[in-house]
Amino acid sequence: MAASNENVQGHFNTGQNVFDYNDSTKLVMEDRDSGLYQVLYINGREKQAYRFDITFGLRNAQTWLYWQDDKTYELPVSYYASVNSWATSPGFSAAHPDFKRFIGKDCFECHSSNMRSELNASTAGITEVMVKSSLVYGIDCERCHGPAANHVNYHTEYPLIKTAKYITAIRSLNQQQKLDMCAVCHSGNDKLKLESRFRFRPGDTLANFFMSRPPDAAVKNDFDVHGNQYRLLSESQCFLGSKKMTCSTCHNPHKDANDGLVFYSQKCMSCHSEATHNFCSVADSLGPVIKNNCIDCHMPRKPSEAISFQLAGKTETSSYLLRTHRIAIYLAEEKKKNTGSLKNIPL
């Protein structure tokens, strides 16, 4: 989305808006008349100022890009809700600022609905440049329902016809087609890309867009919790035993996934119940909490190996925690249940 005061979560108040690299170098988040900026000061003097132009992220963390001519670059400091503070953007140094990390079209394929790019040849070589005016912020209807121009034109001309024409109805897709539609952005970035995600249409086959590494029976898959929701889910017994489970079994694609632990626990119990004899085996010892929070036991938050960050003045790296979608029994969480500490987990 386009960065603005309304969607940038970080603090701009004095005392909460500074990232210190060392005694002489600091980055200050400033709200100026022309927008929000990350401003580099060395020995108290402003050296560079880069505007928050594009926001990536919504709830757990946010990072930002700035435009420089027809290219985008990532700002070196991000905001993390888990620490309610500014910290290094993933992979950036806490020792010195860097404003030259180029962000190409690949990143926009999951964080926007469309973006055109062109290859320019010069004496410096071939470079990718964005068509800035073509950027469609956020994820719109067409990413899940397909091109809609004919749909809009038809129903504008025939407003009394209520049956949707010239657009894909999700209910018309089979289970794998529905899963592929989400997996195009939620099955990791470690595969060889054959086609741009922007070319994916509902009903397409994911294998036509990505080539996976050859499976190795000796190596256990250890998919990162960031961006691998589909592949983690596909290793879950809940999923493997179901012939109809999809992402929308638990998630409403028209809203952010923040309905809370009680809501998602009830989703679990719509399949797992005492009547079907597949209910939690320690339900009696947990008491009423089982109806409010089975998620923390079977889908705990795990640290991402792909994303970590550093706070200013800290040498250690902080983990970025995301909820795993591999539904399973986790020994550490089992121990919490046995000691009764689960009852104190905030909902």
Report what the structure shows.
- The chain is α+β, with helices and mostly antiparallel strands and 347 residues long.
- It contains ten helices and 18 strands.
- Strands 5, 6, 7, 8, 9 and 10 form a six-stranded antiparallel sheet that branches. Strands 1-2-3-4 form a four-stranded antiparallel sheet, with no helix packed on it. A two-stranded antiparallel ribbon has the order 11-14.
- 21% of the residues are buried.
- The C terminus is likely disordered.
Model regions low in confidence, pLDDT < 50 over at least 5 residues: 341-347
Strand content: 25-35%
Report the helical percentage: 10-25%
One letter per element, helices H and strands E, the order comes to: EEEEEEEEEEHEEEEHHHEEHHHHHEEH
Please describe the topology of this protein:
Layout: E1 18-20, E2 25-32, E3 35-42, E4 45-51, E5 54-56, E6 61-68, E7 71-74, E8 77-80, E9 85-88, E10 101-103, H1 105-111, E11 112-114, E12 117-122, E13 125-130, E14 136-137, H2 142-145, H3 149-157, H4 175-186, E15 192-193, E16 210-211, H5 229-233, H6 237-240, H7 261-269, H8 283-286, H9 295-298, E17 301-309, E18 318-323, H10 331-339
Antiparallel strand pairs: 1-2, 2-3, 3-4, 5-6, 6-7, 6-8, 7-10, 8-9, 11-14, 12-13, 15-16, 17-18
